[in-house]
Amino acid sequence: LGLGQKTAIGLGHEATGLLPESAGLTIADLANLSLGQGQLLVTPLQVAQLTQAIANDGLLIPAHLIEEVRTSQGMALFRPQRAPSRRVISRQTAARLREAMRAVTESGTGQLARVAEGGAAGKTGSAETGPTGVSHAWFTGFAPTGRPRYVVTVLVEEGGSGGERAAPIFRQIVEGIIASLR
Predict the structure, then answer these.
(1) In whole numbers, what is the pLDDT of the chain averaged over residues?
(2) What DSSP line would sit under 146-168, residue for residue?
């Protein structure tokens, strides 16, 4: 799913995050890891890439910053090499995850991310920070739910609850995208 490694989007100083090796982890470590806690470190870009793989039926389409460079007359000068898409989870698993993520916005902790037009699905998170004790607020999701087109990942440093702080920002961003395309 791309955790613990650079996304290869082309950023010079991109962090790799940390996905610990299972060897040497205790049962408690594995339980924490399964919840996104403990030694796991991820970047918002990695989480967005993971989310788009779920939205795309388990097919991870590597993120990229530049589609192409054109002259002022519209002639293509350069198209960066892109990594090929690859299946990272089965279609069935992706469908189950999409349904669970839809439930998060309809009746779970992410109700403040609910988008009226087309719906949205996602996952809240509240990541421990260590020094200050105030959690980072996360929300990652996609919209519309029927045919996902947009993935948005929000991280509010020391924001507390992902459902309360990051989810409304997700909704504002997605509604802004939809409004700008009308």
Answers:
(1) 91
(2) SS--EEEEEEETT---IIIIIHH
Helix (H, G, I), strand (E, B) or coil at 77: strand
Q: Which two tokens stand for residue 22?
A: 């299972």
How many Cβ atoms from other residues are within 10 Å of residue 182's Cβ?
5
Please tell me the number of Cα atoms within 13 Å of 41 on its side-chain side: 9
Centroid of chain to Cα 48:
2
What residue spans of 44-166 are helical by DSSP H?
44-55, 91-107
Q: Whole-angstrom Cα distance, residue 75 to residue 87?
A: 33
Measure Cα distances from 33 to 18, 20, 40, 42, 161 in Å: 11, 9, 6, 12, 19
HSE toward the beta carbon, residue 172, CA cutoff 13 A: 6
Q: pLDDT (tens digit, 9 = 90+) per residue, 136-168?
A: 999 999 999 999 999 999 999 999 999 999 999
Both ends of the chain: CA-CA distance in Å? 33
Mind listing the pLDDT tens digit for each residue in 80-108?
888 889 999 999 999 999 999 999 999 99
The H or E element that residue 172 is part of is helix 167-180
Those residues with Cβ within 8 angstroms of residue 120's Cβ, 6 or more apart along the chain or in another chain: 105, 113, 114, 141, 142, 143, 144, 145, 170, 171, 174
Q: Do residues 143 and 170 touch, judged by C-beta distance below 8 A? A: no
Distance CA 145, CA 59 (A): 16
